[in-house]
Amino acid sequence: LQRGPREGGGVIARSPVGSPDEAPPPASSPAPPVDPRRVAVQGLLAVMLADGLIRPGERRFIDAFVARTGLPPLSEADIRPWRPNEVPRPPEPRPILEAMVDLCFIDRERDGTEWRVVREFARAWGFPLDELEAMGRQREAAQASAVTRLWRALRRLFVLDGA
Q: I need a surface site. Which of 42, 101, 104, 131 has the fewest CB within 10 A?
């Protein structure tokens, strides 16, 4: 029995420090490669479930995407609101974010809760938020009806004339 460094009690054994016979610590196993198809599905599910509802059009959109990409059908465990910190950063986030933006507009109107989810994924993946907002504005403009576009044009005209 040896005395501790501060006379605070006995030490049964000391571990050797840097013994030359020691094997190096095992290398951590490399992270599995990121499957962008799977990441896309998880992001789409997060958007779909942002408002707590699964609408038929949204579910068809996701099921069709899963089928086109060759992934197995979704299990019940897959269908949950994924968080950005649970999903790996894809090698190229833009196309996945574009699909998430499209899903936000599937009912022809951007839902604020869904949009916040898309913004959080973009932020987590290091995607510029100004580019994401531009995508949203472009999609919104494309979805707008003729009457809505006319109203916006008139409103811009009056704002400019009133300045």
A: 131
